Amino acid sequence: MHRHEDRGFDLYETPACATRALLCVEELPHRIWEPAAGMGAIVDVLRAHGHKVAASDLIEYRVPGHASGRDFLQERRAPPYCKAIVTNPPFQLAAFFVQHALILAPKVCMLMRLAFLEAGNEKTLAGRARLEVLDGGKLARVHVFRNRLPMMHRANWQGNKTTSATAFAWFVWDRNHRGPAKLRRITWE
């Protein structure tokens, strides 16, 4: 685990295989928003599979076609016709990303550590947000990778590049869902 101050803006590019695995188990609308697009790892895969993707990020990564300087948590509406948000959010802000995304789009898919399922601390704002998004009845599916994803290193990482010891899953929220979430094991291989 990296210290928070070392992580900066939490740019950990998503392996393409993770996004391809999501496409095998979830039906996504044609128009999607990726609000923490980074260098475009998720965007590239979705576009390669025929989706029209609006890409934005708080940071300027100089990727053509991506909007920069856009703080997702301050956005008031999704780009036109986008019916889903698909992203790998900064882990420290993940619960807030989910809360806000559900206001802006009817379907929300987020790649996160499986540890996100652990109980939030009710004494903190982030903990209460996590409890709300996990226990609020809108979490429809959790697609847990049965095999570890290739290691996601933060941008410009110069250290050892080993395989990941962290379990990941795609969490899928649906505004129209009621009841418990379904758990499914998936693979990227």
Strand order of the largest sheet: 3-2-1-4-5-7-6-8
Task: State the end-to-end CA separation.
Answer: 25 Å
Question: What class would the helix/strand composition place it in?
Answer: alpha/beta
Helix content: 10-25%
Would you tell me the overall average pLDDT? Answer: 88
Description:
The protein has a single domain (15-186), classed as Vaccinia Virus protein VP39 (Rossmann fold, 3-Layer(aba) Sandwich). Helices cover 23% and strands 22% of the residues. It has helices at 4-7, 16-25, 41-48, 94-104, 125-135, and strands at residues 31-34, 52-56, 66-67, 84-87, 107-113, 139-145, 168-174, 182-186. An 8-stranded mixed β-sheet has the order 3-2-1-4-5-7-6-8, sandwiched between helices.
Nutshell version of this structure?
By secondary structure, the protein is α/β, with parallel strands linked by helices.
Q: What key attributes describe this structure?
A:
8 strands; 189 residues; 5 helices; 8-stranded mixed beta sheet
Topology readout:
Elements lengths: L3 H4 L8 H10 L5 E4 L6 H8 L3 E5 L9 E2 L16 E4 L6 H11 L2 E7 L11 H11 L3 E7 L22 E7 L7 E5 L3
Parallel strand pairs: 1-2, 1-4, 2-3, 4-5, 6-8
Antiparallel strand pairs: 5-7, 6-7
